[in-house]
Amino acid sequence: MVQARIRVINYDESGSEVEKEIIQLDQKDQFSIGRSQAADIKVMDIKVSRSHCRIEKRGDKFYITDLGSRNGTYVNGDRITTHELSNGDNIKVGFSILRYELPEDASRKKLAKEVAEAETPPPEAVHSCHMCNVQITESEMSIGQAEEIAGKVYCAACVKKTDELFRQALVDDSAEIDDDVDIPASGSLADLIEEDDDEAELDLLPDD
Question: Can you spell out the DSSP letters for the chain?
Answer without folding.
Answer: ----EEEEEEE-TTS-EEEEEEEESSS-SEEEEESSTT-SEE---TTS-TT-EEEEEETTEEEEEE-S-SS-EEETTEEESEEE--TTPEEEETTEEEEEE-HHHHHHHHHHHHHHHHHSPPPPPEEE-TTT--EEEHHHHHTTSEEEETTEEEEHHHHHHHHHHHHHHHTTTGGGS-TT----S---HHHHTSTTHHHHHHHHSPP-
